[in-house]
Amino acid sequence: MSNQHNKDQYIYTVLSYIMAASNLSNKDQFEKTIRLGLSNLDEEKIMTLADVYRREGKREGRQEGLRQGLKTVAKNLLKKGLPLNEIRQITNLSKKEIEKL
């Protein structure tokens, strides 16, 4: 099998998984579009798609890191004896999130 065919097959497999996980109503049309269009993808387009996913992953990681940082701050404020209401205002965490700390 050619390297291009392997790349196409990998992308097809990933997109098929996405389609199955998303429960979209028109799976046949989605699959047909992918099958027809996939062979026309060049490496530059594939890399562009990979870059999009990479950026999205970084964004999600930053958001999670920020959330963890706010939880650490809230925990420290609790240790200092600040009222829960003030901690909520400072961190924008919910009462439930703070109580779990």
Average pLDDT confidence is: 78
- Estimate the helix proportion, in percent: over 70%
How far the N terminus sits from the C terminus, by CA atoms, comes to: 54 Å
The main pleated sheet reads as: none
User: What is the rounded Rg?
Assistant: 22 Å
The string of secondary-structure elements, in order, is: HHHHH
Q: Would you report the number of β strands? A: 0
Question: Which outline best applies?
Answer: elongated
How is this structure best described in words?
By secondary structure, this protein is mainly alpha-helical. It contains 5 helices and no strands. The mean pLDDT is about 80.
Keywords for this structure?
about 100 residues; mainly alpha
Task: Please give a quick description of this structure.
With 101 residues, this protein is mainly alpha-helical. It has 5 helices and no strands.
